[in-house]
User: Fold this.
Amino acid sequence: MKAWTTQLKKGIAELCVLAALSQGEAYGYEILKRLADAGELRFSESTVYPLLARLTREGIVVVRSADSPNGPPRRYYRLTEEGQLRLAMMREHWRAVSHQIGSILDEKRRES
Amino acid sequence: MTTQAYLQPDAQELMDQHLFAVERAMSQSRVPGDERRTVIEELRGQILEMVGERNARNAEAMAAILHQLDPPESYADPDNDIAVEYARKATPTVKSAKSRHLTSALTVLALVTATVGVLAFYHYMLVLHMIHIYEGLGTELPTLSLISFQIDHAFWLYFPLTIAPIILFYLPIYFVIAYSKNRIVSAITFTVYLGLILLVMVLLIFSGYMAIFEIPRVVN
Assistant:
């Protein structure tokens, strides 16, 4: 079960991070908090931070630095136009997939 | 003053050790340097934020914070899709240290034998055509020349000593090009090999021209 949930989270990590950023720009730790607040689906820093680095490299998000009261400057991430487009497409695809999965599960429930 | 400035030295050291271990794990997964730096800076910022939230600046508190975080190995976890993606792009296979050492030794051996083999092949072809040229001129071979010595005294020894590298140098070339970790070494080896083959071809053509046209003209 643990392996399945791990694979599931891997598949939706990018969608969740982009969705968290759609609420407004945020720095890394803040993104983790947004994701944790959403529910039990917890994403760890070892998943999110490398993902943010990759999204930056791909131009899906842009970064700006701002002073932090607690240490090094914070890196605030914000969706680019391409990032917003990707989020919209991923959201649409997720809705279709989750609807289909829901239909399959309902079918199985009716059969049983 | 920032939280980091208030950290006790042993707490700072614990944090630095953790970040170093994370950086090393990512480095082993072939994550590019700029992205490693991004992850390290984000992680450092998170740790300091957590220290600030809890007002905990000693080593014990730092250890508790680090215990909550993912272990450094998870940044090189094969199930971590991002690390796997980079590792796959960077190198098709993960070789053991012993395998890499063997590959390096084979590479050096291949380069040396390829060089010796190609030079021997070149020398052998040159010797053959020198013989033909001298015979065509009707001139006695200079007894003091190295070529004369080899032909008079050690031709049948010299012949197999050049044939073996001629046969062997194809294999080293293959090993270098196919197995060398360093693409520049492979490219240079292949270029040198082609260059020497072209040189030999030019020499053969020149010698053939000399033998067929020039020497008979001189002799006549």
Q: What stands out?
A: The radius of gyration of chain B is 32 Å. Residues 61 and 159 of chain B are 78 Å apart (CA to CA).
